[in-house]
Amino acid sequence: MSKYKVISFYKYVEVENPEGFAKEHLNWCLKNGILGKVYLAKEGISGSVFGNDEAISKYKNQLKSFKKFEDIWFKEIPTDQIAFKKMHVRVKDEIVNSGLHATKLEITAPKLTPEQLLKFYEDGKDFVIVDARNWYESKIGKFKNAITPQITHFREWPKVVEELEEFKDKTIVTYCTGGIRCEKASAYMREKGFKDVYQIDGGILNFIQQWPDTYWEGGLFVFDDRKVI
Questions:
Q1: pTM here?
Q2: Marked catalytic residue, from 176, 180, 187, 208
Q3: Is 182 an active-site residue?
Q4: Residues sharing a CB contact under 8 Å with residue 103, sequence separation 6 or more, in sequence order
C-alpha cells in the first residue's frame, strides 16, 4: 500500500477575493502537512497537492467546506515517491495560462467518459483525437493515433486550431492531463466553427485509472518532482 497520495483538481467558479483566500489557504496547508501547488484567480481554482492519507483526507474536507468548492472533483494517485517538497499558493490572472480571455466557458464541449472513448476506439469510429498539451508532454505518452501539436505553451492553441481546419466537420476529441486545458481548448474550437467536439471527462488521469493498458501509449508527464508516472 502506498504511503502517500497526490490529488489534482480544478474548478471554474467565481472567486471574489482570491488574494485573501490564497493567504488563508496557504496557512492552513502549512499547518496540516500539505505540500504542492495551488493556483487561484477570479475565474476559479486549480491545484495538485501531496501528503499522507490522513492529511489528504483533511485537505479534501477543508476545500469542500466552502460552498463554491463543495462539488470539486479530486483525481487521486497513490504514490511512494515524494511529489512536492514545498507548498505554494499563488494568485494569477488565469488558473491555467491560455490567453483565451474572450472564450466563453458556457460553450465548452460535452464530456466523453473513459468508457465512451474506449468504445470509440473499439468500434473503429471515425474520429480525430487531439492532444491539448505541450510537445514535451506528448513525447512522454499519448493516446493511440493522436495528433500531437508541436507547441511549447498552451497560449499557442489558436494556431493549432487553424492547422486543424481540415477536420472541421469531423468528430474531434480533445484531451489533457486532468481536463482543465480542454475546458477552454474545446470551447475555442466550437467558437471557430468545429461542429462535433468532445473533451475527455477527467482527462488522461481519469482514463488511465479506469482503462490502463488499452489505448494510452507511454507514460504521463506530471508537473511535480516525479516528472513521469
A1: 0.95
A2: 176
A3: no
A4: 184, 187, 188, 191
